[in-house]
Amino acid sequence: MFAKSFSFFALAMGVLVFGSSASANLITNGSFETNTVAGFYGDLVYPGETRIQAWTIVNLGPASTIHLHRNYWKSYDVAGNLSAAAAAIDLDGNVGHRGAIEQIVATPAAALTLSFKLGGNYYDTPTGPRKVEVYWNGVSQGIFAHSLDLGDTIADYDWDTITLSVTGTGGLDTLRFESRTGSGWSAAIDQVELEVNAVVVPEPATVVLVAAAGLGLALKRRAW
Hints:
It is built from two helices and 13 strands, in the order αβββββββββββββα. By secondary structure, it is of the alpha+beta class. The chain is globular, with a radius of gyration of 23 Å.
C-alpha cells in the first residue's frame, strides 16, 4: 500500500512541475530594430545584403527585394510598444516582385510556439488584403492575410497576432516569411517570436499542500 501511495504522491508532484509556460525568444532581432538601413523612411534591402542583423533576404528572382520601413506607420519597437519610428518589414520591395526574408534558428528537439505581428503597406490603395506565407524548414504553415478595419488609416491600424505551433529538430531550423501579394505594397511583419513550450515551477504553497496531502495518504495507508 505504501508503495502505491508513494507512486501517487510522485505522480501528483510531476503533474505540478511539468506544465507549460513561456521561455526565451529563440529568434534574433525579431523586431528588426538592429539594422544599418539608412533613410528616414527606411530603404530597399536586396538579397546578399546583411543590413538587417540575423535575417537573410531570399532571392526569389530578378528585382526581388524587401523594404525595411520606418515612419510610414506605427510598428513595434524592441520593448513591444507601438511607435512610428520603429522598424517593420514590407515583404514587397520593388513593384511587381514578391520578396521573402528568413532566419536560421538553433532549436531544441521540442514543441515550439511561433508568433508574429501581421500588418500591411497600404500606401498604393487601402483596399485588398496583404498576404504572407510562412514556412518552417521548407514546409508551408499557411497563408495569412491582413486587411484594414473600419476606422483604420494607412498609417495607424491594428496589427494581427498570428500564432503557430512548430517542432524544433534539435539542430538548425529555417523560418521564412514570403510575400503572396507581389504588388510592391505587401504584407508587413514585426515582433517575431519563437519560444519553447517549457515547464513551469509551481508556487511554493502549492508544493507544500500537495506534499502534505501525499504524505498524509501514505502514512494512513501504511497504518492500515
